[in-house]
Amino acid sequence: MSEPFDPARWRPASFLPEEDARDPALLFVVAVLCFLACLTALGVIAGNRAAQGWASQLTGEATVIVRARGGETPDAAAARAAETLAGVPGVTEARALEKEKAYELIRPWLGDVADLDDLPVPRLVAVGLDDKAPATAATLAKALKGQGLDAVVDDHSVWIKDIRHAAGVVRWTAGTLLALIAGAAAAVVAYATRAGLAARRDVVEVLHLTGAEDAQIANLFELRFARIAALSGAAGALGAAVLGAVLRLVGGGQGITPALPIAWVDLLAVLPCPILAALVAAVAARITARRLIQRL
Question: Of 139, 164, 165, 241, which shows the fewest CB atoms inside 10 Å?
Answer without folding.
Answer: 165
